[in-house]
Each structure stands twice: as C-alpha cells, then as structure tokens.
Design brief:
mainly alpha, 82 residues
C-alpha cells in the first residue's frame, strides 16, 4: 500500500523537478537583470546622498572663501572685516 502511494507521488515529484529545471534559467536571468538595474528607491537614495555631499562640499568651500576674504581684509589694514 505504501509503495502504491509512493508511485502516485513520484510523477508529481518528477514534474516539479522538471519545472524547476526549466524555470531556473529564467529566474537566473531575472536575478541578473535585478542586479544590473537600479530601482527608483535606490536612485532616489543615491541622488539624496549626492546632493548632501555636494551641499557639504559647497558649505566647506564657502567657509574657506569667507575666511580667505577676512584674512585679506585684515592684511589690507581694515578694522571691521566681519
């Protein structure tokens, strides 16, 4: 009796294995495409990071230019250079 039950399950098991083997290249291709492309969420996150880095860089440059202006003002002999 147990042998008959196993024989009935076997074709389903073989069919499932055949389906897995047949769909494996498609799944691998889909995974490769997922790795190769950037989602909108990732693009937004990357854009935000680039903008924050640019703002920080501009802030440092602005501060450096202001310090340079004050230094030159004092060197020129002016009192109120702020």
């Amino acid at each position: 009796m147990a042998g008959a039950g196993a024989m009935l399950m076997l074709p389903g098991c073989i069919a499932k294995t055949a389906l897995d083997v047949a769909t494996m290249p498609v799944r691998a291709g889909a995974q490769a495409a997922d790795w190769a492309t950037t989602s909108q969420d990732e693009a937004d996150r990357n854009y935000g990071r680039r903008m924050r880095e640019q703002e920080a860089r501009e802030s440092r440059e602005r501060k450096k230019a202001e310090e340079q202006r004050r230094r030159e003002c004092r060197r020129a002999g002016y009192r109120d250079c702020d």
